[in-house]
Design brief:
Elements: H1 17-34, H2 38-44, H3 49-58, E1 67-68, E2 71-72, H4 76-89, H5 91-111, H6 114-125, E3 131-134, E4 150-154, E5 157-168, E6 175-182, E7 185-192, E8 198-202, E9 214-224, E10 229-234, H7 237-271, E11 273-274, E12 277-278, H8 283-312, H9 317-342, H10 353-365, H11 370-382
Parallel strand pairs: 3-6
Antiparallel strand pairs: 1-2, 4-5, 5-9, 6-7, 7-10, 8-9, 11-12
Length: 388
């Protein structure tokens, strides 16, 4: 009898009943709402982001690992499992949830004033307001310390000038957490995108993450009141801590794309016949499937371990780098290998393989490229920073 890839090591025994329930609910949501439509969304280069945000909000998926302000207060493991199931549908769909909850909402939850939290978080948790996280600039991706966006004082107000790009959710968002350089260092600001001087341009013609809204935000002397600044966000460590929060979700999410590819390849190999027998009956095919299943188990165990550390409050940034580096890299390798099992059919939109592979090319480099994570790990091992 055949079994599902993640059943190979009976890994469900490591999960609580609550975690299993969260997984089941999100898996069903993806089956009902995402899978029937996502190939068309990807082909069209658009997705009903606002509609999806409302549905995700009603299920408590937005900021689900945060506490208070309408957030679910779920465990890190439960959040990770939700990310896995969402990305099994599509990386762009998981990105919507990650950016909303682990970047925009987390920044306000962790560094905002009580007034900012009350103003934004309940509506964001409900999916009534969509947020984005504006750190990356046209000339500064992996080097955020060199950002050129500026915030200057004018009386009691702040005035922001600069450009942010590759900002997930920006074209549909009502609010952005914008990071800018001030005389006292990097600060975070809550910026309503309807503010005078803000222009949002959608980035089109993407070959990856096509079921996701991505944009550029231009800030032309945008005047904000004094209380727009996140009071506890001072220095570059603040946005980097938000990225660590989001990268944790990626550790799990990438496994969902890999699992979906492996499920597809297994089903195909059992039914597709060549030379008088199913592809699954050839040793080379079984070797591919076995190697991919082993890597999927290893990635899952790594994510589970990091999740337990997160729930214990002991997870460190370099440990998240280990998870992001390994799991995205292996997920992309699995997607590519699964494509070979389907041959020419593997490039058809009828199957999810090349869509997942294309998406994972973006996941490999956003929120820290593989090279950056290698350097984070290398610095921890050697005690020597080698970023420059």
């Amino acid at each position: 009898m055949s079994i599902a890839p993640l059943d190979l090591l009976d890994l469900d025994v490591s999960l609580t009943s609550e975690e299993l329930q969260v997984r089941a609910v999100v898996r069903q949501l993806v089956a009902d709402r995402v899978r029937p439509e996502v190939a068309r969304w990807y082909e069209d280069g658009t997705a009903p982001v606002r509609e999806l945000a409302g549905e995700f909000g009603r299920l408590g998926l937005l900021g689900m690992h945060l506490t208070g302000y309408g957030c679910a207060g779920a465990s890190a493991i439960a959040y990770g499992l939700a990310c896995l199931e969402l990305e099994a549908g599509d990386s762009g769909i998981r990105s919507l949830v990650s950016v909303q909850g682990s970047l925009a909402m987390y920044a306000i939850w962790r560094y905002g004033s009580e007034e900012q939290k009350q103003q934004w978080l309940p509506r964001m948790a409900a999916g009534e307001v969509i947020g984005c996280f504006a750190l990356t600039e046209p000339d500064h991706g992996s080097d955020p310390a060199s950002m050129t966006t500026r915030a200057r004082r004018d009386g009691t107000d702040w005035v922001l000038t600069g450009t942010k790009t590759w900002i997930t959710n920006a074209p549909v968002a009502e609010v952005a957490v914008v990071w800018a350089r001030t005389e006292a260092g990097v600060r975070g600001f809550v910026v309503p995108l309807a503010s005078p001087g803000v222009t949002v341009r959608e980035i089109r013609h993407k070959m990856s993450l096509r079921a996701s809204a991505t944009g550029e935000i231009a800030l032309d002397d945008v005047r904000l009141p004094a209380d727009a600044a996140l009071p506890d966000a001072a220095g570059l460590k603040a946005p980097l801590s938000c990225l660590t929060e989001a990268r944790y979700g990626i550790v799990w999410g990438a496994l969902g794309a890999a699992r979906d590819c492996l499920h597809t390849a297994l089903d195909y190999a059992r039914t597709r016949e060549q030379f008088g027998r199913p592809l699954a009956g050839f040793q080379l095919t079984q070797a591919k499937l076995a190697d991919m299943a082993v890597e999927l188990q290893k990635g899952y165990l790594l994510a589970l371990h990091l999740g337990r550390l997160a729930d214990a409050g002991t997870l460190r940034p370099e440990q998240v780098s280990v998870g992001k580096l390994n799991n995205v890299r292996e997920a992309l390798a699995i997607a590519r290998q699964c494509r070979t099992i389907l041959g020419a059919n593997g490039i058809s939109g009828e199957y999810p393989l090349l869509r997942h592979a294309n998406n994972l090319e973006s996941v490999l480099t956003y929120e820290g490229t593989s090279e950056i994570h290698q350097l984070v790990i290398g610095q921890r091992l050697t005690g020597v920073a080698a970023f420059t």
